[in-house]
Write a structure and sequence with these properties.
422 residues, mainly alpha, Zincin-like, 2 domains, 4-stranded mixed sheet, 73% helix, binds zinc ion, metalloprotease, membrane, zinc, metal-binding, Macromolecule metabolism, macromolecule degradation, degradation of proteins,peptides,glycopeptides
């Protein structure tokens, strides 16, 4: 074992321990904070949210946070078993004995590691839906549908993922020193293609989409869109109620395939003017170019990560530091991809607050846009209803919020909206 190998193993262990302990510390803060505010609705909401609803949201938050704590510990144990304790090394030996070290063997290695991590996640997913969501009355999904989704998702991952993986492995071995640049271009092209085909080909595999029929609402939305200079291909209602009682609305696709999708659960709960306000908020994200900026940042990060991988594949300490002996004669591309995929989230965890900060800033901007186009009070009312229905806690821990929350807490958004109203 060289010094570099030992150093990298140490860095990895330190990062992993830091990630797990930070996650647990934040989660326990959140649980304590929510429990401490269990018996009183925050003053701002005392007129709109009943105590029972507030307490239900608190219990729901605590249970979900507890599950995340168990999940993060489990994933860390599996990660150590796969890397430092030799799991990937054993898999690699077994698979290369069986299928060789060509493309087939490498794809089998990547697939088996993805299968292992997915199987570890599966019980948590199941508990989330059929224990927690069920207990709080949010789950609308049958166990049958859960497994059908799982099968469809797996088939889709194989059909799309296998050719993409093969192309990546081929580029890694054949495209020379700048393979990572070519791979990045392929990935960007793939992402753009996925955005085009997702709304029309993929989303309908999981949900039914029907054109929005409510004429009054269509007129209202068409008016908002022409007022704000926005074009979309269509307004659709999605049967979100097949899986969950949570409500939502979103935009999907881009260019000429852009469409607006409302969950049926959202339409059932909000008034016409409130739906218009929620949509104006979503339009605000487009008007302020949040979607485009996010895409550019994502592409930039993936280029940097691929360049990093381009360097790591050539070092020995990257493999050995993670418990694997690279082959001296055959391609190690599959191995490198697997190890990178496993350990990257550990290091990326520490930039989570940066993402949350940017996202919250964007949410305020979208709210401000909505407030300029519709009555801010409508968005406030819609938010209160959505928070109550989704049982989002109204009293989250401030540090937990700053680290993870992609949306500012309800109280802050409502404060700002009321300032716009005044
Ligand atoms: Zn938003």
């Amino acid at each position: 074992m060289t010094n570099l190998t030992l150093a990298f193993s140490t860095v990895f262990v330190v990062a992993l321990v830091a990630m797990v302990s930070t996650t647990l510390w934040l989660a326990s803060r959140q649980i304590r904070y929510v429990a401490a505010h269990h018996n009183g609705v925050p003053a701002q909401f005392s007129g709109t949210i009943p105590l029972a609803a507030h307490q239900r949201a608190a219990d729901y938050t605590v249970e979900r946070t507890r599950l995340t704590m168990i999940e993060v510990i489990t994933s860390a144990v599996v990660l150590v078993a796969l890397t430092l304790l030799g799991g990937v090394q054993a898999l690699d030996l077994a698979i290369s004995d069986w299928l060789g070290r060509g493309y087939l063997g490498q794809i089998a290695l990547v697939a088996s590691v993805i299968a292992i991590t997915s199987i570890v996640d599966l019980p948590f997913d199941y508990i989330r839906h059929f224990v927690i969501e069920e207990k709080f009355g949010f789950n609308r999904m049958s166990k049958n549908l859960f497994f059908i989704d799982l099968v469809k998702g797996t088939v889709l991952a194989v059909v799309i993922g296998a050719p993409l993986l093969l192309l990546t492995l081929w580029l890694m071995d054949r495209a020379g020193a700048y393979w990572w640049l070519w791979t990045w271009m392929v990935w960007v092209a793939f992402q753009l293609l996925a955005m085009i085909i997702y709304p029309t080909f993929i989303a309908p595999l999981f949900n039914k989409f029907e054109p929005l029929k409510d004429e009054e609402l269509v007129a209202r939305i068409t008016n908002l869109m022409s007022r704000t200079g926005f074009a979309a291909k269509g307004l659709f209602v999605m049967d979100g109620s097949r899986r969950s009682a949570h409500g939502n609305a979103y935009f999907t696709g881009f260019g000429t395939t852009k469409r607006i999708v409302f969950f049926d659960t959202l339409l059932a709960r909000l008034s016409g003017s409130e739906i218009e306000a929620v949509l104006a908020h979503e339009l605000g994200h487009f008007k302020r170019r949040h979607v485009l900026k996010l895409m550019i940042v994502m592409f930039g990060i993936s280029l940097a990560m691929l360049a990093l991988l381009g360097w790591l594949v050539q070092t020995v300490w990257f493999y050995e530091g993670l418990g694997v002996r690279p082959s001296l004669v055959d391609s190690n591309s599959g191995l490198a991809l697997v190890l990178f995929m496993l350990v990257l989230p550990v290091f990326m965890f520490f930039i989570t607050p940066l993402g949350s900060l940017t996202s919250c800033k964007n949410e305020f901007e979208a709210d401000a846009f909505a407030a300029s186009q519709t009555d801010p009070k409508d968005l406030v009312n819609a938010l209160v209803k959505l928070y109550e229905d989704n049982a989002s806690t109204l009293a989250p821990d401030p540090i937990y919020t700053a680290f993870y929350y992609s949306h500012p807490p309800a109280s802050q958004r409502i404060d700002r909206l009321m300032q716009h109203a005044a």
